[in-house]
Amino acid sequence: MKVAIYAGSFNPWHQGHEDILIKALKIFDKIIVLQGHNPKKLEHKDKSFLEVCKRHENKVEAGVFNGLLADVVKEVKPDALIRGLRNGYDLEYEANLQYWNEDLGVECPTVYFICDRKLTHISSSALREYENLKLT
Q: Positive or negative CA dihedral for 114, 119, 121, 127?
């Protein structure tokens, strides 16, 4: 059984995240979706990703973590990490994360999925900004 971890702040979970999850489900037998705490991104933890994971309950587990993803990876020992890319800026950012994970002893590969073209403009940060503007 091929198991992967798909980790992110997912605040909020959006169509781009689900697009990556659906693509990854075609390759992996089980995906563990983990919402991590990122103090720069999270004012609160959006739990909408839990509902999405329930729709794929036979192949997807959901959870949360604090601290370093590297520590979770060492404990779970997945076959891969899943990351989504929208553009070249994401690739540069994700490459740096991968190098940090390697320096921290993560030995599993990172598998990158490019999101659907029509979703490249969507980001959790932009959605939060939009919601804040609507509230004022």
A: negative
Domain span including residue 106? 3-135
Tens of pLDDT, residues 115-126? 887 755 556 565
Query: How many domains are there within the chain?
Result: 1
CATH number at residue 106: 3.40.50.620
Comparison of pLDDT for 133 and 48, the residue scoring more? 48
CA pair distance 56, 121, nearest whole angstrom:
25
Look-up: residue for tokens 């490249």?
Answer: 120
Burial string for 55-84 (b: 16+ CB within 10 Å, else e) reads ebeeebebeebeeebeebbeeeebbbbbbb
Instruction: Provide the 10 A C-beta neighbour count for residue 129.
Output: 11
Is omega for the bond preceding 109 within 30 degrees of 0, making it cis?
no
